[in-house]
Amino acid sequence: MAPKVLMVAEKPSIAHSIATALSAGQMSSRRGSTEVHEFEAMFQGFKAHYKVTSVIGHVFSVDFPAAYQDWTATDPLTLFQAPVLKTESNPKAHIRKHLSQEARGCGHLVLWLDCDREGENICFEVIDCTGFHTTDDRKIYRARFSSVTEKDIKKAMNNLVAPNRDEALAVDARQEIDLKVGVAFTRFQTSYFQGKYGNLDSSVISYGPCQTPTLGFCVQRYLQINTFKPEKFWAVHPYIIHNGYELKLEWERIRLFDPDVAEMFRVLIVDDGLVEVTGISEKQETKVRPSGLNTVNLLKVASSSLGFGPQLAMQLAERLYTQGFISYPRTESTAYPSSFDYRGALEVLKNNSVFGSHVQTLLANGYVKPRSGTDVGDHPPITPMRSASEDMLGYDAWRVYQYVCQHFLGTLSPDCKYIRTKIDFSVAGESFYCSGQNVTVKGFTSLMPWLAVSEKSLPRLSKGEKIELTKVELYEGNTAPPDYLSESELISLMEKNGIGTDASIPVHINNISERNYVQVQAGRRLIPTALGVSLIRGYQCIDPDLCLPDIRSFIEKQITLVSKGQADYSLVVRHVLAQFQQKFSYFVKKIENMDSLFEAQFSPLSDSGRMLSKCGKCLRYMKYISSLPSRLFCGTCEEVYYVPQKGTIKLYKEITCPLDNFELLIFSMAGPDGKSFPLCPYCYNNPPFEGIDTLFGASKAGSTGKLGKGAGMPCFMCPHPTCRHSLIAQGVCACPECSGTLVLDPVSAPKWRLYCNMCNCLVFLPEGAHRITTTRERCVECESTILEVDFNKKTTPLKDGATLYTGCILCDDLLHSMIEMKHGKSFFKRTGGRGRGRGRGRGHSSRGRGGRKLQDPKMSFRDF
DNA sequence: GCAAGGTC
């Protein structure tokens, strides 16, 4: 039998390209966790059966073991010595299983992961999943390729090497350092400040070696603006008229900061009254065409010219890529590979309605060879792959595509050439000049008109000519501070300082904005919030290193030693962590220095209530004001949302309402029999469905107009058909006491119970079960919702220690024997005294599932 | 609830 070769790439598209190149397109593909392409071809002189598949980025990511996950029980300091675990990044993708299955029976493993440090690390993740290292006769190879072209793929195949463990270990080191440093500082800061202030406007006060310096850049500019002292300055501008054109002359001294001296010059010049042309020079200037487009440059243009943030720009670019309109959008390279088929790439756009004529000119007149640029060896620059029109892509994607085309054609177009003319003047011994420019070759600027050189013609003058002044202006101005940092400037700074990568730069910028450290304002400029400024100024007080970009380069430098085999992996990790641990201890000791800045900006918890849950409209935290009437206040929207009174209210696992995106809350009534139920603050105040006439806590008569305080629609009255928390999902059966429905109390473990959404009826379910949930099934006999019970292993009533059981609480003998009914405290005053009782008022409008017409459920609490 | 790095 032919030997089997397994080859693994970093993403499905590359696996496909490799298989296509090596099989000349003669492969069969099948679906799996990721696609597998199979074909027969030669391998090291033998006929072999190839299987080419891929992972989807990293297979694993690092985290702390469960024992360290509890914020309150873990001192963040101990995290520096804590063990770390690698867990599957995306367990649902089943990549580990996929690789181990595909590796079975394969004698050779060829690793086609991207040729960078992260790729090298993924190589070892793949090796780990395939179990290749266990048997000696199975061989592991690394393919080193500089582009995903047939030529490079075949070349790599003929020059297989071994994977580089040092490079992979460098990434392991970074992962552990980033995790421990980030999480330790984040937990400490968050707990400290959230325990003191009520209006921090962020659920987490995070710290990270990339996000914090990113914020640092924004705050640095903010402080520069805030501490800027404008200065008055003066400049003298003589004017002349030549052939009817007025010409303003610029001063060689530019400006002076002393008004008396400036005025003296003005008087001298006015007194003289004549300017002499002292020289005329012409110089040929070049504005060079762009080199190939990489991710960072695309993001900068998207932010500064298209108005798209990096996150959106990448989403649009990725969509264009998956639809085949542009090449892979995550690349650092600005140099095209030597084998790049420019003509072919141009042909693609030949008939494009917008660029076609330009392209035809380039094809007919010969295009210019692009500038060299830098080749990082990852992916070629971003180029168009298919012709498209705005109709095909939609406006936003079209604008990104349009830019990719303009830039690509720009790289193949001539440089822009222009002649710069400078005329020098002298008057009263002072030197002035004016300059103009005349474009001789538009070149690439005809495609990218916003970069065009503006034309400015100067009058024809000759040296020695003397001209009368028409007026002399003394301009008075103020020096001005720079503007807030633009997103595009920030991206440049991050790139220059090695903060983040092309793929993660958008994430870091998004992070500092989502945590409310900065706000993106007009023109995509980043304005730090009080929180962002307090943090950075705090670090500057305590330990400026913590927010300087060097913190990243320090880590990079250390792990580079590992990658080059110049330092031992575990020693480096220990050494770097020891330094950060010292910084951490010092930070904790000096936290009051930062706190004094917070004190000036934020109010103590007691004053302001506490941040509880996110508003679905602005996604900011709303404040919970516990004083009566208790309510939520969204400071951004200036909206108040009342919540049920006299009980405790908590965030419900950060679950959001599918209707309005507000985070759900769980309300627990006081007392031992206090029921708990989820509610959406928005729906509670603005019931979304018609026919919810009976609001919880409101008397029927009073519910027509405005809502009374504390009256509203909790999730157990909501007829939403698919939400997990609605009446439809959580309702079990009709209440035996009234026309209401018995609903599962979602947080009643371990004393699981049902309560009525109308009256005070309570039904206790089997005690001590690990979990009781409603299912989508209905009992065939009585139409009650079937419950799934996961019994405790020790107390399970099931045979052989089985724990899982499903059944109807009314018709299933086992479950029915285990339930018990009890009346609780009244939910609310009912005008009609006791409930109407079973058998009447059935068919309550909100009872039902999936739009099915409700019938009287034939259920019976026969033994109650 | 936490970092940063892949890719979707």
UniProtKB/TrEMBL annotation:
Alphabetic keyword roster: DNA-binding, Isomerase, Topoisomerase
GO cellular component entries: nucleus
Enzyme class label: isomerase
Gene Ontology annotations of biological process type: DNA recombination; DNA repair; DNA topological change
Comp. bias intervals (Basic residues): 827-852
EC number: 5.6.2.1
Taxonomy, superkingdom: Eukaryota
InterPro entries referenced in this protein's UniProt entry, alphabetically: Topo_IA (IPR000380), Topo_IA_2 (IPR003601), Topo_IA_AS (IPR023406), Topo_IA_cen (IPR013497), Topo_IA_cen_sub1 (IPR013824), Topo_IA_cen_sub2 (IPR013825), Topo_IA_cen_sub3 (IPR013826), Topo_IA_core_domain (IPR023405)
Molecular function in Gene Ontology: DNA binding; DNA topoisomerase type I (single strand cut, ATP-independent) activity
Boundaries of every Toprim domain copy: 4-147
Catalytic activity: ATP-independent breakage of single-stranded DNA, followed by passage and rejoining
Ranges for region Disordered: 827-864
Amino acid composition bias (Basic and acidic residues), ranges on this chain: 853-864
UniProt domain Topo IA-type catalytic: residue ranges: 164-584
Listed transmembrane segments: none
Entry's family note: Belongs to the type IA topoisomerase family.
Role noted for this protein: Introduces a single-strand break via transesterification at a target site in duplex DNA. Releases the supercoiling and torsional tension of DNA introduced during the DNA replication and transcription by transiently cleaving and rejoining one strand of the DNA duplex. The scissile phosphodiester is attacked by the catalytic tyrosine of the enzyme, resulting in the formation of a DNA-(5'-phosphotyrosyl)-enzyme intermediate and the expulsion of a 3'-OH DNA strand.
Protein name: DNA topoisomerase
Organism, as annotated: Daucus carota subsp. sativus
